[in-house]
Write a structure and sequence with these properties.
10 helices, alpha/beta, binds magnesium ion, 236 residues, 6-stranded parallel sheet, 11% strand, 6 strands
Length: 236
């Protein structure tokens, strides 16, 4: 095999995720519209709060909901009601209970590749939520390794590969985020396959896509991955 380890991002690479955030954000916009705030301003204010909170709370639904509460308190000057805060907490409970919906071609592709190579799942987010989604996805048996991490940067990828005794050039990462899945892997000498999702959280877009050098591929959907791997194999 050309690679000793193939790793996948989870959210918006294997299953739909950003759609859920986007639906929840519409509910949040509706709540704040009664205080006279437009959707764009709400999105902007929430994003600012989220960025400020990343170092404190990290990624995932709990962090997102805390940022909503903080934003609504700030924007309403403390006039938000306790029952509205409860509504926001309920948004979070709905989110963690949502169905896990796989992207097209995921099941077949993952099963196919799992036969040939050890597969790893590398994801950020809340531990409990990500474990639950993986359980519900039906994909658990295809992955030999599961890594739920607080951040995906070059240092974390390098440490993870060292721990698993995999050389970066023998590692391939597949994901929908240039910032988290592609650029940090390419930067340490790994290979990466970028498969954009139709919705991307602004934070994951805050990169210069021209930063990447060699070892970067782009596909339209995951179903094209086995063919790309065969091609790389032949070239090797
Ligand atoms: Mg993702």
């Amino acid at each position: 095999m050309r690679f000793d380890l193939i790793a996948f991002d989870a959210d918006d690479t294997l299953w739909h995720n950003e759609t859920l955030y986007s639906l929840t954000q519409e509910k949040f916009q509706a709540l704040l519209s009664s205080y006279g705030f437009g959707p764009e301003q709400v999105d902007q204010e929430l994003y600012t709060t989220e960025m400020g909170n990343l170092p404190f709370f990290g990624y995932g639904i709990k962090s997102y909901i805390l940022s909503m509460i903080e934003t609504v308190v700030r924007l309403t000057g403390g006039r938000v009601t306790a029952s509205e805060i409860q509504q926001i907490v309920d948004f979070a409970k709905e989110m963690v209970q949502a169905e896990v919906e796989l992207l097209e071609n995921v099941q077949d592709t993952v099963a196919k590749l799992a036969d040939k190579s050890p597969l790893m799942l590398i994801t950020k987010g809340d531990l409990l939520d990500q474990e639950r989604k993986l359980d519900r996805s039906g994909l658990l048996d295809s992955f030999q390794y599961i890594e739920i991490v607080s951040e995906k940067d070059s240092a974390r990828y390098a440490a993870l590969l060292a721990r698993h005794r995999v050389e970066p050039e023998r590692f391939l990462m597949v994901g929908n985020s240039l910032r988290s899945d592609i650029l940090p892997v390419v930067a340490i000498g790994g290979q990466a396959v970028y498969i954009p999702y139709h919705l991307t959280w602004a934070h994951e877009n805050e990169v210069d896509p021209d930063q990447h050098g060699k070892g970067y591929y782009e596909l339209e959907h995951i179903g094209q991955l086995p063919e790309l791997l065969e091609k790389l194999e032949r070239e090797a």
